[in-house]
Structures are given as structure tokens and as C-alpha cells.
Amino acid sequence: QVQLVESGGGVVQAGGSLRLSCAASGITFSIQTATWYRQAPGKPRELVARVSSGGSRLYADSVRGRFTISRDNAKNTVYLQMNSLKPEDTAVYYCNAQRPPTWGQGTQVTVSS
Q: Residue-wise over 84-105: b if at least 16 C-beta within 10 A, else e?
């Protein structure tokens, strides 16, 4: 059974940092693309950051330079380091794997001004 479990969300003041984790079971993150998405209330889900099996990274313009996606193959876990957080980063953050298409349950990030 393929499963993704996110953790690390919480409430933080603007300018603070959080690190999200996405632990996988049933799949191997090192051989596929992993993506972080987020969805704010009343808005569509949007891509935040992606890391390919080859290690190339892609970021949304709104987070580039503040967020970093990384992968620990030994732990089969993908991370999202979020620095200089802004109130507009408030959302539920989801981890996604492509093969097979799998979503985690989401973790809430709230940034207070």
C-alpha cells in the first residue's frame, strides 16, 4: 500500500521558519518526482516545489529564494524548508508522488502577521 504522511506544519509568526516532512511507504522517492502543493481557503491547489529523480528542482515564483525542497533517500522522505514565511503562505500543504499518483493527507501551515 502506497502512503505519504506529511508532518511539520503549525502556527508561526511572519518571518519565521518551518520544515515540512513527507515520509513515503510503498514507493521509493529516489526514483521518481516528488512535489509539494498547497491550497489556501477559496483558492485552487498550486504547485510549490518539485524535485525530480535526477535532482533537478522547480519552485513557484512566490516561494523561490525562501523555500527549499530536498530529499533524504535513506529515510525515503522529502522535505520542504520554508524560511521568511509570509501570511500569504498560509495554506494546507500536500505532498505528491507521481507513480502511482498519491497524495498525503495534508498539513496546515498558518503564518500570523
A: ebeeebbbbbbbbbeeeebebe
Residue type, 70: S
Cell 515540512: give the residue: 20
List pLDDT tens digits, range 57-112.
999 999 999 999 999 999 999 999 999 999 999 999 999 999 899 999 999 999 99
Helix, strand, coil percentages (3-state) for the chain, rounded to 5, are 5, 50, 40
Identify the residue whose cell numbers are 516528488. Answer: 34
Q: List the beta strands (DSSP E) in 16-66.
A: 18-25, 34-39, 46-51, 57-59
- 55-64 residue pLDDT tens: 999 999 999 9
Cβ neighbours of residue 54 under 8 Å, at least 6 residues apart? none
Return the C-alpha cell found at 44. 485552487
Q: Is the pLDDT of residue 34 over 90?
A: yes
